């Protein structure tokens, strides 16, 4: 009886050991688990958002001695998806705002000829304002891109003389007024279409990126106007094309660092058409650019 009991205990001990070998769960790391199931071992590794499934098959018996362990790997990776940025971009924008001064060049000179003295203006009140509302482009690299945009551009000329331009006339015609105007503003507004090539410093090279942009531009006349203000008549505004060029073309350059920069642009065409006395009168603008 005692011998039988000892035999039974030995068998139970051996069975428990084999079962423990086949069912043991071993904690490899804090995030890695090894499960032993029958004659195979399945290792699941979870680390840094990845899940890998590795199955190890063990051969038992005398015939398997000296043989390498068979390993079959079935990987199931769940990685955080890394989305590559699309190099093509399109959409509405209000990325920058231009505010600067406008100079009227008369055949390359800042001073106006006697024929064009009626266009004499107040320097610090003759301004250029502009911004873009749409852009479309392609980003070749992190440091270089090309885009075409559409926006609006205004040139406000604050005239010194008390003159009024006549509507629907060819060439540009004006009359002198007896009224003393406190404000006499001569304005052209255009739909502008710039083609921009932008080169930027490498990310991290400076606290903020330094950017340089150049390119050609075109414009389509939207409206011309003259607005006058006086104590005698109050405010008065007249809308007409006033012989402003219906199509403009030129070039521009921009340099900015962070949210502030400078710009300049020059139009190759004359400011006025069908007006021989104003041939060679061109527009040059420069000023500050605010980035958003």
Automatic annotation (TrEMBL):
Signal found in the keyword field: yes
Entry keywords, A to Z: Signal
InterPro entries for this protein: Beta-barrel_OMP_2 (IPR025665)
Domain (Outer membrane protein beta-barrel): residue spans on this chain: 120-268
Leader peptide range in chain numbering: 1-20
Descriptive protein name: Outer membrane protein with beta-barrel domain
Lineage: Bacteria, Pseudomonadati, Bacteroidota, Sphingobacteriia, Sphingobacteriales
């Amino acid at each position: 009886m005692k011998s039988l009991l000892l035999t039974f205990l030995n068998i139970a001990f051996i069975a428990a050991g084999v079962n423990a070998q086949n069912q043991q769960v071993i904690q490899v790391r804090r995030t890695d688990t090894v499960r032993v199931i029958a004659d195979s071992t399945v290792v699941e590794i979870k680390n840094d958002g990845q899940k890998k499934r590795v199955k190890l098959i063990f051969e038992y018996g005398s015939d398997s001695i000296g043989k390498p362990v068979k390993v079959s790997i079935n990987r199931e990776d769940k990685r955080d998806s890394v989305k590559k940025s699309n190099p093509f971009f399109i959409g509405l924008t209000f990325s920058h705002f231009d505010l600067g001064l406008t100079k009227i060049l008369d055949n390359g000179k800042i001073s106006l000829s006697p024929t064009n003295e009626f266009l004499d203006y107040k320097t610090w009140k003759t301004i250029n304002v502009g911004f873009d509302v749409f852009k479309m482009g392609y980003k070749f690299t992190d440091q270089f891109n090309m885009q075409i945009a559409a926006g609006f551009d205004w040139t406000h000329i604050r005239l010194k003389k008390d003159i009024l331009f006549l509507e629907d006339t060819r060439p540009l015609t004006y009359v002198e007024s007896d009224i003393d105007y406190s404000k006499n503003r001569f304005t052209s507004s255009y739909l502008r279409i710039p083609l921009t090539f932008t080169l930027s410093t490498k990310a991290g090279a400076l606290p903020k990126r330094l950017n340089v942009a150049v390119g050609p531009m075109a414009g389509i006349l939207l409206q011309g106007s003259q607005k006058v203000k006086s104590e005698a008549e109050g405010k008065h505004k007249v809308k007409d094309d006033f012989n402003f060029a219906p199509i403009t073309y030129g070039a521009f350059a921009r340099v900015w660092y962070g949210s502030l920069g400078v710009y300049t642009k020059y139009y190759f065409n004359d400011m006025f058409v069908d007006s021989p006395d104003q041939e060679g009168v061109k527009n040059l603008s420069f000023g500050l650019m605010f980035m958003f």
